Amino acid sequence: MKFFWIFACLALAVLPVLGGSSGATLVAVGDIATCGQLGQFVTANITREIVKAIPNAQIALLGDIAYERGTTDEFQCFDAAWGEFKAITNPVPGNHEYFTANAAPYYAYFATRARDPKRGYYTYKLGDWRIFALNSNCAAIGGCDQNSVQVKWLKKTLAANPSQCSLAYWHHPRFSSGSHGDQIFMQDVWAVLAKAGVDVVLSAHDHTYERFKPLDSNGKVNPKGTRAFVVGTGGRSLYAFKKPNRNSQIKNNNTLGVLQLTLNTSSYEWQFKTPTGSSFTDSGTASCY
User: Fold this and answer.
1) What is the pLDDT of residue 12?
2) Three-class SS of 87-152
3) Domain 20-287 annotated CATH 3.60.21.10
């Protein structure tokens, strides 16, 4: 009997801690469901199938979730494709959600998953990581500048929740080689996060995939800086690239897909997951700083 208890304790000791040192999984993508007149999704089912094949994931939706205007009917269309993931989703709104007043159907559909409809930004823990979900629809929430309520909240929350590894996401990319390009109005938010040592920033808006070199608060290359990804490849369409951003490391605009991040205790891994038959791939690993 004594041997049995020793064996049992040893077995328990080596069980993985989900979301801890063994790594938590975050799947990120934006610009998703295009709805026809009959409320049918068109291409969002492609990325849905990719997500279904990734076990034990939490999902970060990067905005522009239900086209064209984020109406109640369009969110029902989105639900037909991605509704099975709602309980594991932490969304942020895109500009298309606000084409309907106050993005009301977005907040109604996601309910507590979207948090306070007057803010649309929040924070949570995933494994050992601190996550910041932000709202880049600045006019709807009183701005995104240094004196805005959101940025003051962000500074306070960063100070109150020190973490070796952290990540932030919102809809409009601070840096992008796509049709919309760099969204300068998100500079103050970027600077706060980079100065605080946040490791990863995710966004969408441009319907492309793009990964950047680690950058400092002024957008200059720094090996210990913040790495940005654009993941607007959820199904709506794909955009052309314009003049390449000089700090872009890799980009693609010919395949849909989602970004899978494995968030370890002091590092992270990324892999852009695409449909079967796609030849494009991007993956890597980096330490938290």
Assistant:
1) 29
2) HHEEECCCCCHHHCHHHHHHHHHHHHHHCCCCCCCEEEEECCEEEEECCCCHHHHCCCCCCCHHHH
3) yes
